[in-house]
Write a structure and sequence with these properties.
By secondary structure, the chain is of the alpha+beta class. The chain has one domain (1-167). It has helices at residues 16-39, 46-65, 104-107, 152-166; strands at 7-14, 68-74, 77-82, 85-90, 94-101, 111-114, 119-123, 130-138, 141-148. α1 (16-39) packs antiparallel against α2 (46-65). The protein starts with 6 loop residues before the first strand and ends with a helix.
């Protein structure tokens, strides 16, 4: 029987600004729709109702999936997770892992982002523009992943300690 994975580090970031923006847009949209249904029901078509349901569902999907970023490091992998979207990198596949400060212009936003250099980022505002830059093997390709972290130096130290033990 194999040993269960041991969680070495866990961080959770709540992205309240997404909730506020998506919630406000959804509220405004619902208010407008209900007003139209109450005051001018003859002008609301079935197509508008279907489109409204689709848009409101999309808003709740965004809210549910981009509300929170979770960063987990175990003795086997590092994982970044935004709702149903996640990226897991096995420690054995990592070529380098180091603390990294970034600029807003590196990814032009927050969330799950990519840039022209081929780096994928799982980042949020309010992280003091710091995190982990991970270079890893995926099949025959070298890839880069940036993950926001409040304690990138600690995670790098944990990783380096595990690598030293394996050598």
């Amino acid at each position: 029987m194999s040993n269960p994975e041991k969680i070495l580090h866990f961080e959770k970031f709540n992205f309240y600004s997404v909730c506020l923006i998506v919630g406000a847009v959804t509220f405004f949209y619902l208010y407008t729709l209900i007003s139209n249904l109450v005051y001018t029901p003859d002008k609301v078509t079935i197509v508008e109702l279907i489109v409204s349901v689709i848009l409101i569902s999309a808003m709740f999907f965004i809210l549910a999936n981009f509300f929170q970023l979770k960063l987990t490091m175990t003795d086997h992998y590092i994982e970044a997770k935004y709702g149903i979207f996640k990226k897991k990198v096995a420690l054995k596949d990592i070529l380098s892992l180091k603390p990294h400060e970034y600029k807003f212009s590196d990814f032009w936003g927050w969330g799950i982002r990519g840039n022209f250099k081929g780096t994928v980022a799982y980042n949020i505002p309010g992280d003091d523009y710091k995190g982990l830059l991970i270079e890893y093997k995926s099949g025959n390709k070298d890839k880069k992943l940036f993950i926001s972290s409040r304690e990138p130096e600690k995670i790098a130290g944990l990783y380096n300690g595990l690598i030293d033990i394996d050598r």
